[in-house]
Amino acid sequence: MSAKRIGILATLGASVAWAFEPIFAKLSYATADFLKTSTTRAIFVTLIALIYALATNKGNLKVSRKQLPILVYLAFAGTLFADLMYLFALTRVPVINVVLIGHMQPIFIVFIGFFYLKEDKLTRFDYAGIIFMIIAGLLVTTRTLANLSMLKLGTIYDLFVLSATVAWATTGVVTRKYLRSMNAGVVTFYRFLIASIVFVAYLLSTSSLVVSNIYQILIGIVVGGGYILYYEGLKRIKAAQSSALELSTPFFATLLSFFILGETVTGMQILGIFLLFVGVCFLSAKEEEFK
Length: 291
Hints:
The protein is mostly helical and 291 residues long. The protein has one domain. The protein contains 13 helices and no strands. The protein has helices spanning 3-28, 34-56, 67-89, 95-102, 105-116, 124-142, 145-149, 156-178, 184-205, 214-234, 239-246, 249-261, 267-289. α5 (105-116) packs antiparallel against α11 (239-246) and α11 runs antiparallel to α13. The chain starts with a helix and ends with a helix.
């Protein structure tokens, strides 16, 4: 099997795993707050990553001095900031809003990559894909024609997710640029180990370090598997391509939120999901120009 195909399948696997994340988070919030859920999530992601690293990297967890600052950045920007903003927003807005905005990373990765990933140059397909995804995000956050006509562009919590999305985009770019050769389990392990230490230290200081429900554990397992698959995919395909493929997550998450949580979806939001896939098609066309 070609490296490109493995990268595509790995990224799609990550998308399915991440579709379960907001569902488990919402169910967890019935008996635990977002901070406790984030802490348990980070701990179990760390454990899953450690098992994977030991199994696939001959137990080697060594990192170089040049790699360590990048891993610290991933932990702080990607987990302590972005993941926390994402999980907090889930306490206030529907799953579809959070998931779709959170997976609009290609817009930012393409622009950031223009400066830091010189091989990922902008094409007319990139511009078209970005336009469609911006429209998709607008339709999903406004929800109805009435809101759109009055320019009700969502809530402050949608902006929290957007800030998380930008932060995630930067981690995707630096991972591809500086950690491409590192074992996926090792990258995930250190990213969440560093974050776990910070989370645990804070909750111990407040005497609130407890596991309140099984969903906190399940979210850690699916996220851990998702990140490993994501990093395996990122080794084999371009950053913008990887993020574009991730955009299948809103489709799966919307179905799960409807059947499990009973959340409703408006016609405009369905149209937004469709336009999201159109954007994916345009971004995917980029690969054909650089064969």
